[in-house]
């Protein structure tokens, strides 16, 4: 009798807790999501204030207490939320020390903190906003659009990033990085904000549809090479190794076959 009770309770409790969990999840979603979206778009005053506090701790030594810039770093007035999101998410900022070029590093900030920093910098002056995912979505592109993205890439970007987007050296010890593995969001933001030597391409120069095509093209060539390249990319070494293993292996098998035939013939 005792062992039966908990079992019966369990049977009823399972669907009930499932329903409860669903209701909780639903209301949590409802409570959190819309406010997060609004905040990401406009930046609430609380977010701006918290962003300012964070900024003054980690960024102001180079960018000034109010983002006005110092001899160590440029003014951030008018660079926009997209620039902060790009620079901090890719680990370029905060820069460890002023140098030739801020390299990509592991980002140590949470999305929430980056949102606050972005909201604060956006409040200093109008600049490019962090895009919505629909602006850089490349999943529905046709082959034609992707081919056009390739053309646009060759005209606008390959001079620095090279035709296969593997990156290349620039004058004065600077470089344009490889674009393989860069998130679509960060490609969008880099194009709109022009980090360092890179020019800004505004909507007038490259509209959103064209930018999505470029992103689609970049993601396409990223997938492609791995199939053909793994052998060809290492060139003669891999091919030599292949030849060695198959060639010598084949010869050994042949030798074994010959000897076994010879043995049988005797
Ligand atoms: C050690 C100095 C230093 C620190 C600390 C630093 N920055 Fe920077 N920052 C720079 C320099 C120098 C540049 C310009 C050169 C570059 O982009 O590499 C720059 C560029 C930027 C840009 C690009 C501006 C543009 O024109 O689009 C943004 C945005 C930015 N920093 C944000 C931040 C934020 C946010 C923090 C704090 C989390 C931070 N930085 C901390 C030195 C610094
Ligand atoms: C004049 C040279 C130049 C041109 C033209 C140029 N870029 Fe760049 N690009 C750079 C440099 C330099 C950087 C590195 C900036 C930094 O590290 O702060 C960069 C960075 C980037 C990044 C960031 C990569 C990362 O690792 O986070 C992306 C994405 C990018 N470029 C895409 C493009 C696209 C797409 C185009 C064409 C529409 C383009 N670039 C045109 C020089 C250029």
TrEMBL record:
Residues annotated as binding heme c 2: 157, 160-161
Residues that bind heme c 1: 59, 62-63
UniProt-listed InterPro entries: bc1_cytC-su (IPR009152), Cyt_c-like_dom (IPR009056), Cyt_c-like_dom_sf (IPR036909), Cytochrome_c_Oxidase_Subunit (IPR050597)
Catalytic reactions on record: a quinol + 2 Fe(III)-[cytochrome c](out) = a quinone + 2 Fe(II)-[cytochrome c](out) + 2 H(+)(out)
Compartment(s) where it occurs, according to its Swiss-Prot or TrEMBL record: Cell membrane
Enzyme class: translocase
Superkingdom, natural source: Bacteria
PTM annotation: Binds 2 heme c groups covalently per subunit.
Segments crossing the lipid bilayer: 241-260
Domain Cytochrome c, residue spans: 46-125, 144-222
Segment forming the signal sequence: 1-39
GO function terms (MF aspect): heme binding; iron ion binding; quinol-cytochrome-c reductase activity
Keyword Protease: no
Membrane topology term: Multi-pass membrane protein
Name of this chain's protein: Cytochrome bc1 complex cytochrome c subunit
Originating species: Propioniciclava coleopterorum
Source organism phylogeny: Bacteria, Bacillati, Actinomycetota, Actinomycetes, Propionibacteriales
């Amino acid at each position: 009798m005792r062992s039966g009770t908990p079992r019966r309770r369990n049977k009823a409790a399972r669907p009930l807790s499932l329903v409860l969990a669903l209701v909780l999840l639903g209301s949590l979603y409802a409570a959190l999501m819309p406010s997060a979206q609004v905040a990401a778009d406009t930046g609430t005053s609380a977010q701006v204030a918290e962003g300012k506090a964070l900024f003054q701790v980690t960024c102001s030594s180079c960018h000034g207490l109010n983002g006005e810039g110092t001899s160590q770093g440029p003014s951030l007035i008018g660079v926009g939320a997209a620039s902060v999101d790009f620079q901090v998410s890719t680990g370029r900022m905060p820069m460890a020390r002023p140098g030739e070029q801020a390299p990509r590093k592991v980002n140590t900030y949470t999305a929430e903190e980056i949102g606050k920093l972005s909201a604060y910098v956006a409040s200093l002056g109008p600049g490019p906003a962090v895009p919505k995912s629909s602006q850089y979505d490349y999943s529905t592109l046709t082959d034609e659009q992707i081919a056009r993205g390739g053309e646009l890439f060759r005209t606008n970007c390959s001079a620095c990033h090279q035709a296969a987007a593997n990156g290349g050296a620039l004058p004065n010890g600077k470089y344009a990085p490889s674009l393989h593995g860069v998130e679509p969001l960060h490609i969008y933001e880099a194009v709109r904000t022009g980090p360092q030597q890179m020019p800004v391409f505004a909507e007038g120069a490259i509209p959103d549809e064209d930018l999505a095509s470029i992103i689609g093209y970049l993601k396409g060539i990223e997938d492609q090479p791995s199939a053909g390249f793994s052998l060809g990319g290492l060139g003669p070494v891999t091919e030599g190794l292949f030849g060695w293993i198959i060639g010598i292996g084949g010869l050994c098998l042949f030798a074994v076959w010959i000897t076994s035939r010879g043995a049988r013939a005797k």
